[in-house]
TrEMBL record:
Protein name: Holo-[acyl-carrier-protein] synthase
The protein's Enzyme Commission number: 2.7.8.7
Molecular function terms, GO-annotated: holo-[acyl-carrier-protein] synthase activity; magnesium ion binding
Protein family membership: Belongs to the P-Pant transferase superfamily. AcpS family.
Gene3D superfamilies per record: 4'-phosphopantetheinyl transferase domain
Binding site residues for Mg(2+): 8, 62
Organism: Aquabacterium lacunae
Source species, domain of life: Bacteria
Catalytic function, reaction form: apo-[ACP] + CoA = holo-[ACP] + adenosine 3',5'-bisphosphate + H(+)
Occurrences of domain 4'-phosphopantetheinyl transferase (ranges): 4-121
Gene of this entry: acpS
Function of the molecule: Transfers the 4'-phosphopantetheine moiety from coenzyme A to a Ser of acyl-carrier-protein.
Keyword line: Cytoplasm, Fatty acid biosynthesis, Fatty acid metabolism, Lipid biosynthesis, Lipid metabolism, Magnesium, Metal-binding, Transferase
Length: 130
């Protein structure tokens, strides 16, 4: 049974502007440790790919926070929710600390998809009962 659906559309240009103003502090605030490694690798190879990665993760976390009904309040935080790719390339949500415990208590499962095109990143999350 579906318990929540969330979506978010992010303007990649705004993410770039924020990075330009706040340097990498913005990425460090939004991304968890595993995501940060991927971001830094992509940014070093092709800067635009790094920015797109950050934008899709930002959108996915916003969508996830809507799907679980918390928004960005405890136990939901930017860094406790990571969107990482499975070996197949499929994005997956990995939760940490209090957020992982809270989510497990509800016995929910989350599905996420992300995409980006030119100036926008889009994420869609469905949360269902196990």
């Amino acid at each position: 049974m579906i318990v929540g659906i969330g979506t978010d559309l992010c303007d990649i240009r705004r993410i770039q502007q924020t990075l330009d103003r706040k340097t990498l502090r913005f990425a460090e605030k939004v991304l968890g440790p595993n995501e940060l490694l991927v971001f830094q690798q992509r940014l070093a190879k092709v800067p635009a790919r790094g920015v797109r990665y950050l934008a899709t993760r930002f959108a996915a976390k916003e969508a996830f926070s809507k799907a679980i009904g918390l928004g960005m309040r405890m136990p939901m935080t930017w860094r406790r929710c990571e969107i990482l790719n499975a070996p197949s390339g499929r994005p997956e949500i990995r939760l940490h600390d209090e957020l992982a415990d809270w989510f497990a208590q509800h016995q929910w499962k989350a599905h996420v998809t992300v995409t980006d095109e030119v100036d926008h990143a889009l994420a869609f999350v469905v949360v269902e009962t196990l």
